[in-house]
Amino acid sequence: xxxxxxxxxxxRATLAATLVVAVALVVAGTAVLLSLRSNLIGxxxxxxxxxxxxxxxxxxxxxxxxxxxxxxxEPVQVVDEHGRLIAASGDxxxxxxxxxxxxxxxxxxTKATSAQDSDDGDDDADDVDPAxxxxxxxxxxxxxxxxxxxxxxxxxxxxxxxxDGESGDYRFAAVHVEVEGRGTLTxxxxxxxxxxxxxxxxxxxxxxxxxxxxxGVVAGVTWLVTRRALxxxxxxxxxxxxxxxxxxxxxxxxxxxxHDEVARLALTTNETLAALEASVERQRRFVADxxxxxxxxxxxxxxxxxxxxxxxxxxxxxxxxxxxxRLQDLAADLLLxxxxxxxERPGExxxxxxxxxxxxAEGRAGVTVRAQAVEVAGSRGQVGRVLTNLLDNAxxxxxxxxxxxxxxxxxxxxxxxxxxxDGVAEADRERIFERFVRLDEAxxxxxxxxxLGLAIARDVAVRHGGTLTVDRAPTGxxxxxxxxxxxx
Length: 488
Hints:
By secondary structure, this protein is α+β, with helices and mostly antiparallel strands.
């Protein structure tokens, strides 16, 4: 059942559209989340930097020798150049991601140990690098600060802090300030990332809920649209199935008024049905005409044989032989037409068309031949049959003479057969090439033939890549012109 469903064009189109939209939504959603997170982190960093610079300004303008204190609701640390915490927010209980994890100011070193502490401070300064874990806005070398001056450069890091029992993630900003008598101090100030985390979580939740709903809408709309678009195709299929079941080739499939590919498909289908109907009708007429033509000589031959069996002295042996020959010729014509209709290839054997024309005209009374040596490729027997049929037709209609000429015109080998009879009316010049067509219905069968000779001649010419036409001869009769591709 699943394989049958996926075999539907509508199902495949719906699945493809849904997958494409799903991929687009995932890519777009990821980009939105990353952009939202980056913007909110940037805002938190800006807020942290603002707090750090405010605290640094307060420290820079504080009277010399007065103890430093920090009164701020956010986590703030003030660290000296030796990495020692000298001031922090009062509610700060724990912190990470800054220069030190101390939360209580450390006592100042005594003068007796100042030298040793100075050496230790140098080591601590080597161990603690506030910028090592951050993303500085400027990698350029910082010039020494003057007393009361605040550095223009800010270093940002991410970390955590616990204030008054509440823990959270923070974005920390670090700025340097030069304080007379205290050296270079570093102020760390944090801004909470809770808003960023909440916004990203909310956006992610909305996407997880909204994306499936949107994909469902896309799938439903695509299913309905493709169903409407393919409805004419289903109509064409249903009508073709009905035509196949009824074998009524006169029926046609509906053509939608859309002027698109489906409409063109319907038009092409109707054209194919029309061609098939015409072909079947030609085949039906051919069988009917062939049966009629075969019935006459067979009936005549049977009658003569029955009379001969009952009264041998009355047997018309010559007439029986003539009917037998006529029956044999008709059977050969029908067999050749069947091979031509089946698409039998003429072959690629080369032969001299002029010599073949002289050979076919030999022994015929009143026939003159002027033939050049022109080579063509194909079936020598079939082309010879064409010349025989043309000469037989000209002989039946000529008063006294038939002229055959063979020559070359550019890339064509041309055979012209002209007689001095009454010719062919212009209205009948295409009809005479139809099967079983005889213009003079009153003509006897012995003289008129079955009406297959010219039809066979044109079919053979077309199979060889050539043409066969009829026009008016200079002598007033019919001029048949056979053109075949010549071989250099």
